[in-house]
């Protein structure tokens, strides 16, 4: 795969990961009601996310309520919130830098070495963004698992298990890190050696003509 095609593929994968991470952060399905055990399927399904909690009735009506207080939330929710916001910010700046640094764009064509370095910096930002998303989703999933299996008087059919947003978040983190890794392959070393060779060959050619 050529350098330009590799960069484009990495950018598309990283962009898809960033959009998926945004969807995962907004959607409220981070954990949902469990129907395990001797459960009687109720008419109401509960979903909770980083920003709101929702109740979906069997009639199709969904009612959501935003989390009123930030400080009253559990620590793992606050931490996951912060990590997802940092991930989205890093990914946003990674998009900008990758667009500027990719070979298929017109910006900065007069200095290909600097252009490649900008693409690598964008890839690093995407990798960091993916790591933040992975940490946020894994932390939340660990807490859900702990609350599900711990000894409690709450019946198993009234506990929570993984929601679809967690799986979207894991996929988003994987895409961001894969795309960032492909962008980081835009190493400017070859281009730097080529420029140095051209600079060394120009004086010798001028002396020959004299």
Automatic annotation (TrEMBL):
Recorded GO MF terms: structural molecule activity
Protein keywords: Cell junction, Cell membrane, Membrane, Tight junction, Transmembrane, Transmembrane helix
Membrane topology listed for this record: Multi-pass membrane protein
Ranges that cross the membrane: 82-100, 120-142, 162-185
Source organism, top-level taxon: Eukaryota
Cellular component terms (Gene Ontology): bicellular tight junction; plasma membrane
Subcellular location: Cell junction, Tight junction; Cell membrane
One Pfam family per UniProt: PMP22_Claudin
PANTHER family in the cross-refs: CLAUDIN
Function: Claudins function as major constituents of the tight junction complexes that regulate the permeability of epithelia.
Protein family according to the UniProt entry: Belongs to the claudin family.
Descriptive protein name: Claudin
UniProt gene name: Cldn19_1
